[in-house]
Design goal:
Helix content is 67%, strand content 0%. It has helices at residues 4-11, 15-24, 42-56, 61-68, 72-104, 113-125, 129-145, 147-160, 164-176, 185-199, 212-220, 228-237. The relative contact order is 0.06.
Length: 245
């Protein structure tokens, strides 16, 4: 005859676990002896070891009771099903670990490796983190809503970044975000931009967008999508001079 503490030590579980098994109806609770202690028998010990073995094998406690007294065929089928569920859980955990590994890589968790490479190149070029985050968010929106356009626009962006003049304009537009709207450099930047666009009429805005709504969403939904200097720059490029307060 064993006390609950001795039974727990023998089976390699905690007293709390035994009491939990009592509450779940997995292990019968013996009556108390004349001293007020519950005394467990070898039968209790055997059943407790079976419960512990099934629980540690990953069998949910809700199913343990049925399997304790199941015939060999039923037990084999149930174990096979539980094993399949464990394989699915393991696969999910592996996917989660892969995502965590990607998260350590920053942008690569949210965008394709091709876009992440582009963002890395922009960082190397000296583009601000604000602009890179805006680029990343734009690619996330585009990739989700219009993968075909995203792939084509990525190819075009790569080609544009090979043009030294375009790269210089890109950096200057990025820097201009923080300029005051009356900055004397803005008219010159507007002129250079108009000249570049005029010299490259086929490089911008000529290909129809399969999903024009996503283009509007990308332009309108991002925080910091414009600034007072950029607003004036846009007016200068369309021939609307002046500074609005």
């Amino acid at each position: 005859m064993l006390t609950i503490g001795r039974l727990a030590d023998y089976a390699g579980v905690t007293v709390k676990a035994i009491r939990h098994y009592h509450e779940r109806g997995l292990l019968t609770e013996p009556g108390r002896d004349s001293s007020g202690y519950r005394r467990y028998t070898a039968e209790h010990a055997v059943r407790l070891i079976k419960i512990r073995t099934l629980a540690r094998a990953g069998v949910p406690l809700a199913r343990v009771k049925d399997l304790l007294d199941a015939d060999p065929e039923t037990l084999t089928a149930a174990i096979a099903e539980i094993d399949h569920d464990l394989e699915d859980r393991i696969a999910q955990l592996r996917r989660t670990r892969d995502q965590l590994a990607q998260l350590r890589g920053g942008d690569r968790l949210f965008v394709s490796s091709e876009v992440a490479d582009l963002l890395d190149d922009l960082r190397d070029l000296g583009v601000s983190e604000r602009a890179i985050q805006a680029e990343r968010d734009g690619w996330i929106l585009m990739r989700t809503a219009s993968p075909e356009d995203a792939a084509l626009w990525l190819t075009e962006k790569r080609e544009l970044m090979t043009d030294p003049e375009f790269r210089a304009l890109y950096l200057d537009h990025d820097a201009a975000y923080d300029w005051p709207p009356d900055d004397p450099r803005l008219p010159g930047l507007a002129d250079r931009t108009r000249s570049w666009l005029a010299a490259h009429p086929s490089r911008f805005g000529t290909r129809p967008v399969r999903n024009p709504a996503i283009a509007r969403l990308a332009a309108q939904s991002q925080p910091g999508a414009s600034s007072p200097a950029w607003e004036r720059l846009a007016r200068l490029m369309t021939g609307q001079a002046g500074v609005k307060g």
